Amino acid sequence: MPDTSVFIDRTFVGTAPLSAPDLRPGTHTILLSPAGHESRSEQVEIVAGEERVFAVSFMEIRLDAAIDVIHKHTFGSCAGRLRASPGGVTYATADRSDAFTVALTDLETFEVDYLNANLRLKIRRGKTYNFTDPDGNADRLFVFHRDVEKARERLVRSPGRGPGGGR
Fold this sequence. Notes:
Elements: E1 4-8, E2 11-15, E3 26-34, E4 40-46, E5 65-72, E6 77-85, E7 88-93, E8 100-102, E9 107-113, E10 118-123, E11 128-132, H1 138-157
Antiparallel strand pairs: 1-2, 1-3, 3-4, 5-6, 5-11, 6-7, 7-8, 9-10, 10-11
C-alpha cells in the first residue's frame, strides 16, 4: 500500500515496498503503518538465508466531517469551517492568518463544553482555539467532536502512531 511506513523493532527503516538484507536472525517486531489506516504489528522469526515476504490487509480509518463555526478570539470573532479527515483537522476562514491544518495525532486537547456550546482545540506545542456554532447549537459541535474523536482514538491507539510512537 502506498505511503506505508515500515518499522523493525521500533526503528523506522523506510517506506514499503522495501527489503532489509542486514536484518539479523531472531525474533523481530515488524510494524506497518499506512496513512489513513490502522497499523499492523507482528512478531516474526527471521532465519538466516530465508527470504520473507509480507502481504497484509489494513482496516481503513474513515472520517469526512465538516461544520460551520465561529472562532472566538480574545476580542471579536471570525466565521469559518472546520473539516476533518484521517489526515487531520483544517480550519478554513477568510482571515488566512487564522486558518490552520493539524494532524489528528497532534491535537493536545479536543473537547466539547456542551453547556457553553464550545469546542476547544489545542494544537500540541501550539495555539488553543475556541469554536462555537453560528446558531449556538451544541448538538452539531458534539456530533463533529464525536466523529473526529472516534477516528483520532483509532489512530492514536495504533502502534507506531502518536507521541513517542516513532512517527
